[in-house]
Design brief:
2 copies of one chain form a homodimer. The first copy, chain A, contains 16 helices and 13 strands. The first copy, chain A, is an alpha/beta fold and 351 residues long. Chain A folds into 3 domains: 44 residues, 434 Repressor (Amino-terminal Domain), CATH 1.10.260; 133 residues, Response regulator (Rossmann fold, 3-Layer(aba) Sandwich), CATH 3.40.50; 137 residues, 3-Layer(aba) Sandwich (Rossmann fold), CATH 3.40.50. In chain A, the strands form 2 sheets. In chain A, strands 7, 8, 9, 10, 11, 12 and 13 form a 7-stranded mixed beta sheet that branches. A 5-stranded parallel beta sheet of chain A has the order 3-2-4-5-6, with helices on both faces. Chain A binds a DNA duplex (30 and 30 nucleotides) through helix 2 and helix 4.
Amino acid sequence: MADTLTTAALTLKDIAREAGVSLATVDRVLHNRPGVRPDTVRRVREAIERNSFQPHVAAAELARGRARRFAFVMPSGPNPFMQQIEAYLGEMSGWLSARRLNVEMVATDVFDASVLAASLEALSGDYDGVAVVALDHPTVRAAINDLVDAGTRVVTLVSDVPSSRRHHYVGIDNIAAGRTAGALVGRLVGGRSGKVAVVAGSQGLRDHAERIFGFNQVMASEFPDLSVLPVLEGRDEDERSEQLLARLLGRHADIVGLYNVGAGTQGVAQALNNKALSEAGRDKVVFVGHDVTALTRRLLLQGVMDAAISQNPGHEARAAVRVLLALARGEPILREQEKIRIDIVMRDNLP
Amino acid sequence: MADTLTTAALTLKDIAREAGVSLATVDRVLHNRPGVRPDTVRRVREAIERNSFQPHVAAAELARGRARRFAFVMPSGPNPFMQQIEAYLGEMSGWLSARRLNVEMVATDVFDASVLAASLEALSGDYDGVAVVALDHPTVRAAINDLVDAGTRVVTLVSDVPSSRRHHYVGIDNIAAGRTAGALVGRLVGGRSGKVAVVAGSQGLRDHAERIFGFNQVMASEFPDLSVLPVLEGRDEDERSEQLLARLLGRHADIVGLYNVGAGTQGVAQALNNKALSEAGRDKVVFVGHDVTALTRRLLLQGVMDAAISQNPGHEARAAVRVLLALARGEPILREQEKIRIDIVMRDNLP
DNA sequence: CTCAAAATGAGTTGCGTACCTCAAAACGCC
DNA sequence: GGCGTTTTGAGGTACGCAACTCATTTTGAG
């Protein structure tokens, strides 16, 4: 009836006895310290395996004494999504200090490869772990690899550098996110045929490019009645996005759907709400965008926006910390837990 | 540039000095032990506040010695959703044993109030925390309250007993889940008018009843062109669900949408796939159901199912453990982290 | 076989807290 | 003021591990 999921609590002493060596030797093996014969190492490792021994986290943490230092390297501009991540880190402060973890925010221009790389290099040696919103660029990749070589744990956050040797990526699969947006626009348009507009920050940004790729994939294969118009590059700025989109809406009377890939949501919404349009008796344009912010929340409730694709910023913040901590402790990572999901948020499941 | 989120590491000794008392007195205050004058208690509490002191989790954990025992009281039947929860708990076994946490599974008939209550009462005193998939019934409520009074931490899992004094509920808002299902069916039907079928396990189950309530709310207010047919009670059984639904589909040629509230998904899908129907040249029925399992995953990929409302079972399992642990340690709960979201899962964002 | 180098054993200290004991001091009551 | 009671102080031990020292044993090269 009662089925236990955990094993008895062994200690290092038990392992030492099992392996027929002293505590000191087990300690050497456990921490990869030199001066142990390969054969002895094997014996100790086997004893650890055989008993599926887990060092007591609390004891290990207590014994090492020094606190751990983590750095979060984030964009300096006023980006609501990044501000949310910071806010959620702030909410964890009690959790962090109870574990003697120091988390520092480092603001930098993440869009300038050399500036970002310099910021990363500056952290070398001082930190146990670094989370970075990374630009995918050779210079940045090199800086990340340098950090890793220096023994610092590195996770990329939101935006990945797959070619680097970062230990982990905390963020969503942006191609799948684009596909999801495509499926939503297609389905919510509801059988009408017509054109679909796409507004992005820049196609040079890896995440935006990937989202557009996924979006087009789905539109082409599953919704032949909808044709996707060339991407508007709004640079994530409200004014520019509004102007570009307004012009496009004026030119094409049969736009039935809209995918806003990045920020600039305010401008996009404004262009859609334009009086001239509604007076022309047009159908509502299906509007799918990204992220749940105060603005998109309002737009969803008002019905201006139909769905938001979201990556939970709180989850990302906590996952980054947990992954860095697990890496530093040498604990396994709970992949399922740290995986960031693509959330579809509509009015009725607003978090 | 670098902004730290945590404070200096104080110890109990520092607090004792600050408050002008001895370590022993601080300890007494911290653990609500008797024998301290109210005035002294206040002085100590103030010193703790003033320095926002946090006991070192690792040290506390190490010092208390004994392992903690948690029990998960779950339905005994072969329910895939519950099996997933168990599986995810199994995946945590390393994490658990590194923290000297013992988690035991207790299978019982959660649909029989007196049996469930007896199972709960039997746990009294032996466990630090209990997570229970609870039936909302006065007898169960009393059993939960008894556990709480005995000092055991109790969280309800998946299904809540709001009137009890359980410390926390780990699960979704089922009314909102039903609303979300309604919005999805309504939107995905795409402007067609017709009838909508609803299949539930039983309207006597609190979560099913709440989902249906939310579903009807949205259908009535937002989709006047769709009329909801009386609920079919399939008792979460495949065969029964299939028969009931097949009969309904035969009677109403204009069914355009279907909401499956609980399990029995296999049967529902079979009824929809019936040859007789497809040969009649009917439109596809929009099918929205719950939970991502091997089956619903396949149905989504095949296009039989259009969307699944999901509560992440892995998240629920981990959240339950974390909440119990935080409660036992007297740590604050990260509400944002432990909140279970209503996930909308379509083919392209299948996890 | 010899001897230096490598491997190992034995032991210590300290991390911050929980939990306990015992003695001393402060207190309130008559 | 004396008494018993309550409150407080002082101190110790234990938890499991990291990190270190130093002595001792084993090993392999010459």
